[in-house]
Protein 1
Amino acid sequence: MYTNVVFIAMSGGVDSSVAAYLLKEEGYQVHGVTMRLYDSYEKSYSCGQSIPLANAVAEKLNIPFHAIDMRDEFKANVVEKFINQYEKGLTPNPCIICNKTIKFGELFEFITHKLRNSEISDYDILNPEDFNTDNHPMIATGHYAIIEQNKNGRYMLRKSNDLSKDQSYFLYTLTQEILSRTVFPLGRLSSKDEVRRIADEQGFVNAKVKDSQDVCFIPDGKYSEFINSYTGKEYTPGNFVDINGRILGTHKGIINYTIGQRKGLGISLGKPMYVYRLDIKNNSVILAEDSDLYETKLIADNMNWVSIEEPKVGDRRHALGRIRYRHAEAPCTVTMLEGGKAEVVFDEPQRAITPGQSIVFYDIATDSYVLGGGIIQ
């Protein structure tokens, strides 16, 4: 029976609620934590926007509940970084940024250091022995992924049993320290139906709440409208050009476009055309036919290695690479470069390799373990 203290990040959604229930059933001393991250919308249950729902579930489970104001940290580390990257013609994944800087960054730091050092007076309900050297508090989330430890003591991250809900792609930035202190209770469940069933059986108020499908701070999915509203800037129109530099028309501002996009271009050329490149220097959007979007090579930066030791410069490894969340992994060769970069060459061309997105590598033997990942340049 586990006796560790664990803080579960509760968004108000069904996944983290069931995760809290499962932790309590396993014998953990569970504390619910909801982060207040953003003010502007009530429809999103992700990213800590529904404190009352999370609190209601905590009361149902009879566990302590804490709400933490992290609006400043979220805006600085997630929202404004997301906008900054878009303005540079990149397409970032804000969920990966949030996991690294907020859930397993600011929240992890808060739990392991500020709480431990008694800097927060609201947590005097915890016993001093809960924070001794040998019994650090754990952190848990409702992510669908599994953490294992190999015979050499290294923590390994692998896909959840329910592959349709697997979220290991979003977690490749986690370090060994964080993995050693993290629990993902939902990873070994068979399906989301099982999560819904448990929530219904426990009478959770959010048992029927639909899953969020979009970025939590942009619930309607209209990225460019959000960026315009947030910054108050006017993004200068420029030229649509083909791959030979011929001007085709006028675009509405580069933040409105991403690699591989066809819909919403606002231009008719008599045949399907797609965004091929964003030329920030010349404020141009380069269009091409679908066949031109396939490429075999990319460079990734900010590499982080999870289930294996960091390779040395020049090391080469075969892996399965995923260039976006809803993308099938494909065989590739990864060669380590200087400066924390890697060259990736796919066996077969991949469609719409997008700068700013993350490429995540899985082991080629089982297609289960996250080897590591980085940001596509």
Protein 2
Amino acid sequence: MRVLPLFVVALFAVPLVAPAAMAAEITKIGDIERGASVTLQGEVTRILDEDEFRLQDETGSVRIYIGWRNRVMVEVGEEVTVKGFVDDDLVAYFRPEIYAQQIVRADGETLTLN
């Protein structure tokens, strides 16, 4: 019987575990908390301004702010993943807003924001 080194076994095991770990990182919009870092997945339902859009999943919707130096690069109906943090000011308590740092399109294209 041939014994494989531990690092070879680990190399093949990581791809099997990674997708499950990535799925666990997604936060539902209905579960966001002020000041938290989040990764959200959903559909773009509305372009609010040149630097804001609304993202919706099955638990709710939230405003996504991409920064004044950026312009909205997504379209209504597009499925995206947004990585960022939840604004923690008082207005955000009543109307949460996400400050996006990265947007990943369904085709895997990654948009890193300033």
